[in-house]
Design goal:
Layout (H helix, E strand, L loop, with lengths): L19 H11 L9 H8 L3 H7 L5 H12 L5 H10 L3 H11 L6 E6 L5 H11 L8 E2 L1 H4 L6 H12 E8 L7 H13 L4 H4 E5 L17 E2 L6 H13 L2
Parallel strand pairs: 1-2, 1-3, 3-4, 4-5
Length: about 240
């Protein structure tokens, strides 16, 4: 897009990938009522919000943040490029000029997306300690920590798994088998590149299971934490698998 003068295709980047720094900066520009330049109300109108909706946003601490969240929810396919087009239409070239280094940068990428259910978060927290805060220095995508509130769950999940995470660690447990979110994430990842499944997905079992191991993962090598003899090399082995090109 000409506004950014960047080779990055902003039209392919979902709005959910816009970082918090850029969102706050947008608010600093657009939240104040401006008699000379367009403010958040003009931008909201260009996004397709009605007069009544815009009037109700006036009581929000940050109307700009709220319209971004609601625009995402209403239009899951909206992109960063579309946002820039709206700001251009509002003739706020000063905003684009100041934010182009924030908006035009590549979205954050990760070594692995962690697929887990909330009851297993204590183990995910241990994974963070062992893989991020040690010499391994891996970068994990943990949904509850790394995804902004208000983003469309399904669009940001597919974006992260397909384009921004090299691999996916699946924390398999009895509760995992009952999780619709985990089921969606696993099946989506498996659908991406059938020829490279063994490279992309890494199932992890950290405690004994009463239910049957999921059949869709049966052809993958499992990293087992729940066996005493494997605990010694569990974290180095997992780290090595996640560090491969």
């Amino acid at each position: 897009m000409s506004a950014c003068g960047d080779s990055l295709d902003l039209g392919s980047i979902p709005l959910a990938a816009l970082n918090q720094t850029a969102r706050k900066r947008l608010g600093l520009y657009l939240n104040p009522t401006n008699a000379v330049a367009s403010d958040w109300m003009t931008v909201a109108e260009l996004m397709g919000f009605t007069y009544l909706e815009i009037r109700n946003y006036k009581g929000c601490p940050s109307p700009t943040a709220r319209i971004l969240d609601d625009w995402e929810a209403k239009c899951p396919d909206v992109t960063v490029g579309k946002l820039l087009s709206v700001i251009e239409s509002a003739e706020r070239h000063d905003v684009i000029s100041d934010l182009k280094h924030l908006i035009g940068t590549h979205p954050e990428t990760f070594d692995a997306f962690i697929c887990y259910c909330h009851s297993d978060f204590h183990f995910v927290n241990e994974m963070i300690l062992q893989l991020e805060q040690t010499d391994h220095r891996l970068k994990l995508c943990v949904f509850d920590r790394d995804v902004l509130p208000g983003t469309c769950v399904w669009s940001i999940t597919t974006e992260l798994i397909e384009k921004r995470c090299k691999r996916m660690v699946v924390v398999v447990s009895d509760d995992y088998l009952d999780s619709e979110a985990c089921d969606f994430q696993t099946k989506f990842a498996l659908s991406l590149s059938p020829g490279a499944r063994s490279k992309r997905l890494i199932p992890v079992v950290y405690k004994p299971m009463e239910k049957k191991f999921p059949s869709i993962l049966r052809f993958l090598t499992v990293c087992e934490y729940n066996k005493p003899f494997s605990k010694t090399w569990f974290w180095p082995r997992l780290a090595k698998a996640l560090s491969l090109p």
